[in-house]
């Protein structure tokens, strides 16, 4: 039954396409497909990063909650998994916000896409500074470092969400205004005309020149950290030590009560056990300077 239905429907569908009067009106060129796909991808990433950055900031300020739950675990394994999952998800979201935000620095992006300048590029730079602070300091034990990362992530999240809502999404909002509302005034219209990359090219180029310079400095510090602040452990030369041991037991030093009852075999065993302590042992000691190694945070 299904095979017969498919055989009948396919010819009918092809015959309907042949009878369509204006097939060329729905055809899309290759340039239109590429342009539409790039704009769709950029819009999707811009909107998705608003939620990703919000989740990163939420986990950053929820550190106290995770520590309180951590103290309730009775098993060490459960506590380790809980804390490890928190660290991985929180730092991973901050890293993803920075990496995916680099898309706004592509020249083709701010020419064909209404990107919020200087809000979005500055947000990416702040996420990068937060990662550099985490790289050089322990933001979970150092209170000043933790506060600095929290302020940076909060500011970066606020800038990205503000730019997405009031600038990136403004063309859609202005095209669907209710009747009687003017589309040539108001906050959204002013923000779109002043801070959109497609409408204010001078501000866009100035923003990108400054942000590119700051990203170059961050890249230098990020590259220098594993080279200057990490080292491999070194081992000192082996030292020969002679542990002190008791002198071999002689028959004359044995008590009189046991001298008569002991035989030659017992005397030989006692002498061999005492002589085993004089074996030369080799110890490899660690350099005290290398005991406190610098690890990458």
What does this structure look like?
The chain has helices at 2-18, 30-61, 63-70, 76-101, 107-112, 119-136, 143-168, 170-175, 187-195, 201-228, 256-259, 264-275, 288-291; strands at residues 239-241, 281-283. The model is unreliable at 250-262 and 277-297 (pLDDT under 50). It folds into two domains: 35-228, no CATH class; 239-291, no CATH class. It has 297 residues and is mainly α. The two termini are 66 Å apart. The protein has a two-stranded antiparallel ribbon. The protein is built from 13 helices and two strands, in the order H-H-H-H-H-H-H-H-H-H-E-H-H-E-H. The longest helix is centred in the first third of the chain and has 32 residues, at 30-61.
Helix/sheet category: mainly alpha
Count of helical stretches: 13
Indicate the mean pLDDT.
Answer: 76
Uncertain residue segments: 250-262, 277-297
What kind of sheet is the major sheet?
Answer: 2 strands, antiparallel
Distance between the termini: 66 Å
Order of helices and strands: HHHHHHHHHHEHHEH
* Residues in helix, %: 55-70%
Number of strands: 2
Spatial strand order of the main sheet: 1-2
Assembly classification: single chain
C-alpha Rg (nearest Å): 36 Å
Provide the domain count.
Answer: 2
Overall 3D form: extended
Strand composition percent: under 5%
